[in-house]
From TrEMBL:
Residues 86-245 form the Disease resistance R13L4/SHOC-2-like LRR domain. This is Disease resistance R13L4/SHOC-2-like LRR domain-containing protein. InterPro entries: LRR_dom_sf, LRR_R13L4/SHOC2-like. Pfam families: LRR_14. Keywords: Repeat.
Length: 270
């Protein structure tokens, strides 16, 4: 099928192992889709910057801006132009910070900001009451954003390496709808100190009966001494024990406990 499209000049060879759409076909596709965007509830804007987009008012439900590396900054008022947004994907952008206007996306269900190598913190998101998925994989974010405890509908949290010292007691109990929690960092494990979950946080996490998948690093094997029912309840888990960086491949389909130093079992915890 690809070769047929190339023979018809609808696709062109572009570098090694890459194809691109012919400019005429691309322009026609964009104009065709925009002519009926009200019917399908989406709009395509190509070749303009984020500042120009923010001047327009859209009722779209999905905004996909991933892999836009040249953009290092999002205009402060940008997200005010998308009040009906439900899916926002900014993965792979060169953006260093997110504006506080992201907190205005009251209908947002999914916020995906993977591969943000320059992003160190998130703005307050406490008003995103409908958020069900927050994916911040491969970023430099190390602390939970303000208002995180208000996200009671959150089902999936992918936010590796968190500073648990700043997490208040009872925080994880407020995430009563959580189904998948991933706080294991595999991409930047050598770039910053490891954050370890203590007994109190683990008790709160493991007591969530809605939880099906758990990927975390714990401080000591002693936290396993109390209640083991979570092991049979979870469908999949990967738990690293100890503060030594390990490079065991994270397989999210397994049930696995990885021990980095045997001496932590000197008191017979196992």
């Amino acid at each position: 099928m690809v070769e047929r499209l190339k023979d018809a000049c609808m696709l062109e060879a572009h570098k090694k192992d890459f194809l691109k759409m012919h400019d005429v076909v691309r322009d026609f596709a964009i104009s065709k889709e925009n002519s009926s965007w009200n019917e399908h509830n989406y709009v395509i804007q190509a070749g303009i910057g984020l500042a120009e987009i923010s001047l327009l008012k859209y009722q779209t439900t999905s905004l996909l801006l991933q892999d836009n590396e040249p953009h290092e900054k999002i205009p402060h008022e940008f997200f005010l132009a998308f009040p009906a947004q439900r899916v926002l994907n900014l993965s792979g952008a060169g953006i260093r910070a997110l504006p506080s206007s992201i907190n205005s996306l009251r209908q947002l269900h999914a916020l995906i900001i993977q591969n943000f190598h320059m992003l160190t913190e998130l703005p307050p998101i406490g008003k995103l009451h409908n958020l069900k998925l927050l994916d911040c994989d491969i970023t430099r974010v190390c602390c939970l954003p303000p208002g995180m405890d208000k996200l009671t509908n959150l089902k999936v949290l992918n936010l590796p390496v968190i500073d648990f010292k700043n997490i208040s007691k009872g925080f994880f109990l407020k995430l009563s709808s959580i189904e998948m929690l991933n706080m294991l960092d595999r991409e930047m494990i050598n770039l910053r100190p490891l954050s370890l979950i203590g007994a109190t946080c683990f008790d709160e996490i493991s007591s969530q009966h809605s939880m099906t998948s758990l990927f975390i690093r714990v401080a000591s094997s002693s936290i396993f001494n109390k209640d083991h029912t979570w092991m049979s309840r979870l469908k999949r888990f990967h738990i690293d024990v100890g503060n030594t960086p390990t490079h065991v491949q994270l397989n999210k389909s397994r049930r696995m406990i990885n021990v980095s130093k045997c001496e932590i079992f000197s008191n017979g915890e196992l």
